[in-house]
Amino acid sequence: MSPTSPVPVAPAVSPRRGAPRAWAGLAPGVRDWLVRAGTLVVLLTVWQQVAQRTPAAILPTPARVAGAAVELAGGGELGRAWGETALQVAAAMVVAAVGGVGLGVLLGWYRPLDRLVSPVLGALFLTPRIALVPLVALWFGLEDLAKIVLIVAFGFFEVFFTVRDGVRALEASHVELARSYCVPRSRMLYAVVLPAARPYVLGGLRLGLLHALVGVVLAGFFLESSGIGGLIYTLGSAFRTAELIAALASVMAVGLAVNVGLRRLELRLTPWQVAS
User: Fold this and answer.
1) Model-level pTM greater than 0.70?
2) What transmembrane ranges does the database entry give (predicted)?
């Protein structure tokens, strides 16, 4: 072979692109669900492998936890606990929503009043709510009223600060546009501010409800042992690990459902948020 002879080149092997193309051809929502399902399968597999090498009292297998969940649901313990919890959270959220939205709009619109009151509310917000338990128990006892007060403390501040900051963040163009249409200042709050602040109100209620779920679980630990928090405390004290994990999983499921459901409602009621 002479130096000038062309060197034979092996034919290029075209990569197999069937799988990437098939994956790219899936709808984004389908891909998301497949990724989540795959992640769940991996986590359950790791859990199963670790649990097989660990005493059941420390970490039961996924199958044992699933069986415990069926027993808790079939025996009525889980349903009764969540029924009590739903009533307590509903009562607390009425107070947190009315107070948080009302005060948030008021202080967001009237800056002098905000400068007077917000430092006190900010100090309370920065105080860990769990530190209020002894005082709540001393003032309101250990039963349902005390639990509702504690849940309000968890939910109120999320609603209030989200709404207040939202009203304060409204662009000046909203007010200027209203003035150009000769809207009197006495009607500005109802005609302009409240409709524009709707996304913040809905977002604050969603965050407040999620924090209220944290409050109701902790209330069951430190106050009357009822509701889902009381059930978790009782199961943990009895070293019923499988049932304990099942109860915790129900809290995770409810929290996820609340977050997703309220987020979809929020986007439905404020469709312009999707574009932004």
Assistant:
1) yes
2) 86-109, 121-142, 148-167, 213-235, 242-262
